[in-house]
Amino acid sequence: MARQPRTTSTTSPGTRVAKRRLATVKKLPRPVASGSNTTPKSRPGDPIRPQKPRRYRPGTVALREIKQLQRTTNLLIRKLPFSRVVREIAIEVLGPQSGVGYRWQSVAILALQEATEAYLVHLFEDANLCAIHAKRVTIMQKDIQLARRIRGVWGGLG
Prior knowledge:
Blueprint: H1 60-71, H2 79-94, H3 106-133, H4 141-151
């Protein structure tokens, strides 16, 4: 659509004669908006821009993490912080005796950690079932409380 013939009618004082004139319409380049959608052309010497990190759809990364964690048998809680908590609770419960420290075998702390993680995973599974029953996908505090109440006093793993 670069050139189009256009008919214009002009009137002279005595007669009405239509004269045909070619009017040229040139296609002008559109002005470039200075918005965020335009990307400037790269020039030699410009630093290379790092690409944006990939944005996954909601839930994709969570499902990938769940699958990866279900494949592994590693402990989920770090060993040293768990060991500190165990020692702190032992001192609170048994009472600090004068000058006597408690010594722990690493296998004993590892057994406690295995049992603790098994209990917590089972508790979260039950709490998830409670949340699903309430037509929710998010676990809330009331779900955990209900799961513990249904389990009973000992809250076994069965």
